[in-house]
Amino acid sequence: MGGVRGQQTAPKEASSPLVANEPTAPKVLTSVPGPATQQHLKELNAIQESGAVSLFVDYESSLGNYMVDADGNTMLDVFTQISSLPLGYNHPDLLNILSDPSNVVAPKGLSHICTMACGSCSNENAYKAMYIRYRTRERGGKTDFTQEELDSCMINQAPGCPSYSLLSFQGAFHGRTMGCLATTHSKPIHKIDIPSLDWPIARFPIYKYPLEEHVRENQEEDRRCLEQVEDLIHKYNNMGNPVAGIVVEPIQSEGGDNHASSEFFQELQQIGKRTGAALLIDEVQTGGGPTGKMWCHEHFDLPEAPDVVTFSKKMLTGGYYIKEEFRRVRDMYENASVGFEKCPAMRAIIILGVHTGGCGEKTVRLRPALIFQPIHAHIFLDKLETVLAGL
């Protein structure tokens, strides 16, 4: 039997922790934030904006579901860095699981990957991939650029910088970088004072609950939202701002934990196919297993894989999976890049065992470490003289 209000009653059977030696309960030793945390905040605030920082984590001391802060306070962590720690802190099996090749995590139908550092940059670079794919289709698959394209892109003008757009949804959150902010609509604090882009924003379904009692109303909500998506795509296409992609979370996270039906996502994919817009499903917060499947969109029974799936958080790194056609497009752009092939000195010196970089059209760039010593400089100069003598 449960206890009355104001009393605490322990469960009859307490399950054992999955991580050995995990703390058995929170232990607060100081005020929160404590003196060490307050000092760290003061030091941090002297060099950067620290308004969003509330504590500092002692990662070596944290274990399992318990986080230890800089003051030694042990706290049960039920937020896990905005859902970023799949097995809590210092789980002994985590590295073994990630290094096991039998643990395939790629979404079905997506065999190519591009890794990134975080969720925002994963989405930002996935947006670029969708633009490149759209423009390549407009060119009829041609793999060369006109001089006008090369020159105009350097001054942010068309045709090198085409006027494309992405469709996103009210309540969406896709990141805080500039392109991602144009598709983020969850909280004003994310966007206020920041210039943005005039891209289409559609309504995300807002259902009535319980679902089983409002089937007809929720189906109508799906229909209204999907009609608006297609209307907006045609509107922006006719305005000269073609919609190159549709960006959507399988569950809106920052915007209110909003869900949509499998039928909604299935028809959304079909709209993308009819209009030529790629479908990007942002799994930064939902990927990695929290919905019962490795990828939340697997619940939707899509006829085929999304064009792009971005990830971060529980995956402990960022990036995006793409269909093979996107990989071919990226390869085409890489082959057209300027640098290594136009700089024979750089190419030759790498062959001799010195790793350097290129910049501009034919310049070798040096950025040595702070521990670079005269002996290292002599080695480099010796190799450079060998290269220059052969040119």
TrEMBL record:
<dbReference type="GO" id="GO:0005739">
    <property type="term" value="C:mitochondrion"/>
</dbReference>
<dbReference type="InterPro" id="IPR015422">
    <property type="entry name" value="PyrdxlP-dep_Trfase_small"/>
</dbReference>
<dbReference type="GO" id="GO:0030170">
    <property type="term" value="F:pyridoxal phosphate binding"/>
</dbReference>
<dbReference type="InterPro" id="IPR015424">
    <property type="entry name" value="PyrdxlP-dep_Trfase"/>
</dbReference>
<dbReference type="GO" id="GO:0009450">
    <property type="term" value="P:gamma-aminobutyric acid catabolic process"/>
</dbReference>
<comment type="similarity">
    <text>Belongs to the class-III pyridoxal-phosphate-dependent aminotransferase family.</text>
</comment>
<feature type="compositionally biased region" description="Polar residues">
    <location>
        <begin position="1"/>
        <end position="10"/>
    </location>
</feature>
<keyword id="KW-0808">Transferase</keyword>
<dbReference type="InterPro" id="IPR015421">
    <property type="entry name" value="PyrdxlP-dep_Trfase_major"/>
</dbReference>
<dbReference type="Pfam" id="PF00202">
    <property type="entry name" value="Aminotran_3"/>
</dbReference>
<dbReference type="InterPro" id="IPR005814">
    <property type="entry name" value="Aminotrans_3"/>
</dbReference>
<keyword id="KW-0032">Aminotransferase</keyword>
<feature type="region of interest" description="Disordered">
    <location>
        <begin position="1"/>
        <end position="27"/>
    </location>
</feature>
<dbReference type="GO" id="GO:0008483">
    <property type="term" value="F:transaminase activity"/>
</dbReference>
<keyword id="KW-0663">Pyridoxal phosphate</keyword>
<protein>
    <submittedName>
        <fullName>4-aminobutyrate aminotransferase, mitochondrial</fullName>
    </submittedName>
</protein>
